[in-house]
Amino acid sequence: MFDNHVHCHEFPREELEKYTKEWTLVCVSDDLATSRRTVELEGAVRCVGIHPWQVDKAEPGDLEAVVRLAEKAEVPCVGEVGLDRRFVPQTFNKQREFFRAFLRLARELDLVVNVHAPDAWADVVEELRRADVDRALIHWYTGPLDLLETIKDLGYYISINPAVVIQKKHQEAAKAADRRIVLLESDGPYEYRGMRLAPPLINKTVEKLAELWELPRDQVVETVESNAKRLWRL
């Protein structure tokens, strides 16, 4: 199964090696240093980028360096990139500068954009649309339900993670979304309300989706895996 958004560089090596044997990991990066580590990973879908939380810490030249790294390493994805009005609103203008640079790169090289968007859901969708990006995944979606139709019409996806078992907004989004745009993620090893998120917990996500969608577990897995293969062109 696919874990479509996971911070592989934060896991201990032995733990990560175990997961790569059982899962197709889409490994996102946070900054230039972690992007360099990500491109060295084997057996994973590699995403390079600068996280919105890190843009204010980026050194001059870091953005250009990550762009060059994406080109040189021929990665299929940029991420984790995006906009954040909830946790770091004070850097929003710089976030947008970085995000637009990554969107230009994604458009030029036909890359997937793995997006972070707390309280900037409509902003990122509009930026993606204006940049004419073909493929994007908005991770841990808890945004407006009425935006889901636009996301679908643009051909983009959202991802649901194990927080859905306790987070009401995540449940509402998972239930309201067209099933053809839903993917799974762990966002591991993030800590959320006592849960250490990691790929194995995706099984809990599947169980919750089966409940919300009123479908057998196997049918949920078939749906989300088909969606992932379509996004990653596999």
UniProtKB/TrEMBL annotation:
This is TatD-related deoxyribonuclease. A divalent metal cation 1 binds at residues 5, 7, 80, 187. It holds the Pfam family TatD_DNase. InterPro entries: Metal_Hydrolase, TatD-like. The keyword Metal-binding applies. The keyword Transcription does not apply. It comes from the Archaea. GO terms for molecular function: hydrolase activity, acting on ester bonds; metal ion binding. CDD domains: TatD_DNAse (cd01310). A divalent metal cation 2 binds at residues 116, 139.
